[in-house]
Amino acid sequence: MPKRGAPPVSLDKEAHRATVAAGFVTGLLSGVCARGLDPSGLLQAAGLTSEVLADRRARIPIASYVSLYNTVVRELGDEGLALFPQPLRAGAFEFLCRAMLGAADLGQGLERGSRFLRLLLPELRLAVIRRGALAHIEISETRRWRPAMNDPCRVFAFEWLLRLVHGISCWLVARPIALTEVRFPFAQPQHADDYALIYTEKSTFGGKSLLATIDARILDLPIRRGDSDLAAFLEGAPGKITLLYRRDRELARAVRDLVLKSLASSPTLADAARGLGLSTRTLHRRLEHEGTSFREIKDALRREIALARLEKSDRSVAEIAGELGYSEPSAFFRAFQGWTGIAPTVHRRRSRA
Q1: What is the count of structural domains for the chain?
Q2: What are phi and psi of 149, to 5 degrees?
Q3: Which helix (H) or strand (E) holds 124?
Q4: Which of 176, 199, 220 represents a domain boundary (last residue)?
Q5: How far apart are CA 315 and CA 306, in angstroms?
Q6: Does 340 lie in the same domain as 212?
Q7: What is the pLDDT of residues 83-120, one digit of tens each?
Q8: Which has the least CB within 10 A, 49, 121, 218, 300?
Q9: By three-state DSSP, how is residue 108 classified?
Q10: Which domain holds residue 340?
Q11: Alpha carbon separation from 2 to 27, 180, 196 (Å, rounded)
């Protein structure tokens, strides 16, 4: 059995883009199987067959995995996927997001989230620890609810909760957050190669608790999302979280870089496709596979820059609108109100107060 400090896992990213290992499907269904329920109907509803549970080398399209995730939640009425002794009733994920939304920064948001999760998951405890230039997101057991270290339910519970917390955190600050290292509290599973895409290339195993390391400055990032953003984020959730902020979203990053260089001219999907040497249809499809769209990337970039300019510069609203590619300040005004619920001038005044 691999010991703590085992060599980091590696992965050929090209071969594994837009799919997940069968081990994650086994984990996702582990609570169902532990209760003696037949998962074949759930698999069939997601367009999968029972054979995927027997073939450790199988890879599942992300869209099928997300469909299976949401099907299990809906059929069981349990957002915790039957992993724990008590179910997480419908709405738990939404109210976790709401608990974190009103925070001033990510550190405060995670603290709020940890208090909320204590009410829902007495078996696991989330904590955030600052240590100089680094910070650790720790997930520890308050009691061992599954006897074996590598019980599929226990393994997937840690995988699931880290993915959930990391995905929400990235969304709240409107940027990917790099996990520099993660130590998992179980022996290296057969699907550990996928950890390089989902978590970090520096994954080790055999710890007493899960410990995910990030740059401590990330905890000071302001919360960039508001109530007006939540409805779009919840569409397709919680299964959609498996799509977000994966480290293999290389095309999405390429599109973002391209749009950033030409934002003032308000580039279109066709412009981006030409710049990347792809057809418009291919670019749209591949971005969809990565869980995003050209419009979503462009709007997120505009929002990020708008907030930074309003908070840290003295540029007028009209100047910012032009820099972001809006033909009229009024169009920027409407977009900003849609993002935040308030006018750009109001946001500037509040942020400086």
Answers
A1: 2
A2: -55, -40
A3: strand 124-131
A4: 220
A5: 10
A6: no
A7: 999 999 999 999 999 999 989 999 999 999 999 999 99
A8: 49
A9: helix
A10: 249-352
A11: 20, 20, 17
